[in-house]
Structure formats: C-alpha cells, structure tokens
Amino acid sequence: MARQQVSGTVVRRLEPRDLATxxxxxxxxxxxxxxxxPESYLPAPDSEMCAWVAEQGASIAxxxxxxxxxxxxxLLNLAVAQxxxxxxxxxxxxxxxxxxxxxxxxSQAFLEVRExxxxxxxxxxxxxxxMAGRRPSYYQAPAEDALILSLPLPSRG
Length: 157
Ligand SMILES: CC(C)(COP(=O)(O)OP(=O)(O)OC[C@H]1O[C@@H](n2cnc3c(N)ncnc32)[C@H](O)[C@@H]1OP(=O)(O)O)[C@@H](O)C(=O)NCCC(=O)NCCS
What we know:
Layout: E1 3-6, E2 9-13, H1 19-28, E3 49-56, E4 59-69, E5 72-80, H2 89-103, E6 108-114, H3 118-126, E7 130-139, E8 144-152
Bound molecules: coenzyme A (COA).
Coenzyme A binds next to β5, α2, β6 and α3.
C-alpha cells in the first residue's frame, strides 16, 4: 500500500526526510509508544518491516511501524502527535498497515499494548481488535503487563 487518502489524512510510506519528526512524535508518546532505532523506520524495500506516516495538511500527524512474517502481521509501534489526536490519523495509519497485511496474505494482525493504556485500548476496540492474551511484566519503565490484541484479516481469495 503506497499511498492512501482517508478524509483529509494522507497515508504514505515513511521517507528519510520524515525521520526527525517521527522520532519526536515517538518521544512525545512515551511510555505508551515503544522506542525503536531510527534505522527500523527505514527498512529495505524487500524487508519484513514497513512504516508509514499520516499527513494532515502540511504536517506529519503520526506514524506506524509493522512487521509481516509467517502469514501474520504485527503492529510494532504507533503514535499520533498529541495535537493531532482524535482526527482519524491513527485509524488511517492502522488501515494502511492492515491493507498491506492483506496484500501479503496475512491472516491475523497482532499487537501488544500496556494494560493501563486505556486510550489505545479504546482505539483498538473501535477498530475491531479483541483481547488474545497477556504477557506478564512485559514492559519496563514503568513495569507493566502487556495485553495481546488480535484481529483476523479477511482472505483475498
Ligand atoms: C492510540 C492513538 C494512536 C490513536 O490515534 P488517533 O489518531 O487519536 O485515533 P483516531 O482519531 O483515528 O480514533 C479512531 C477511534 O478510536 C477511538 N479512540 C481513539 N482514541 C481514543 C481515546 N483516547 N479514548 C477513547 N476512544 C478513543 C474512537 O472511537 C475514535 O473515533 P472518534 O474520534 O470518531 O470517536 C493515539 O492516541 C496515540 O498516539 N496514543 C499514544 C501512543 C499509543 O498509545 N500508541 C499505541 C501503542 S500500542
């Protein structure tokens, strides 16, 4: 999925010129978002990883990083800048990542989320994700369990 427009939000592949803004949004969303190395956001074209940014007007509202392997996909990181939240960027980003998963024949999407991240839990529930498990003490700083959420993806066949 190279480029997708959903009601005022344009989602496109993350490019090197976006990196500083993406890392600033990531920092501003800690500890809810994870910290990934800068290189993770610029994977090779044939990599299992893909990253996208959401543009609203002239600014980057947020980003998503996903991995596709073994017939499944995982949302590795997702954040929308505080000032841009509740305007559809998060939904548009996840939609793009899920569309790529369907194009790559993934049958399930997974992610981990801090148990106390009530905003993200409401967000993922609105997108149809359901609780699939728990990883005790998965996170540090602060220590916390991860909830595993999953979403079945429709097959293209
Ligand atoms: C979670 C996050 C990515 C959502 O991004 P967003 O752009 O604000 O989400 P959207 O505007 O696309 O929201 C879509 C729907 O999700 C639900 N939703 C989103 N945020 C919510 C919140 N804080 N509380 C309750 N419901 C919420 C709503 O149903 C919303 O639709 P509505 O605004 O029409 O009511 C954003 O809050 C964020 O960056 N949080 C910090 C980082 C984080 O938690 N990342 C996830 C780690 S697993």
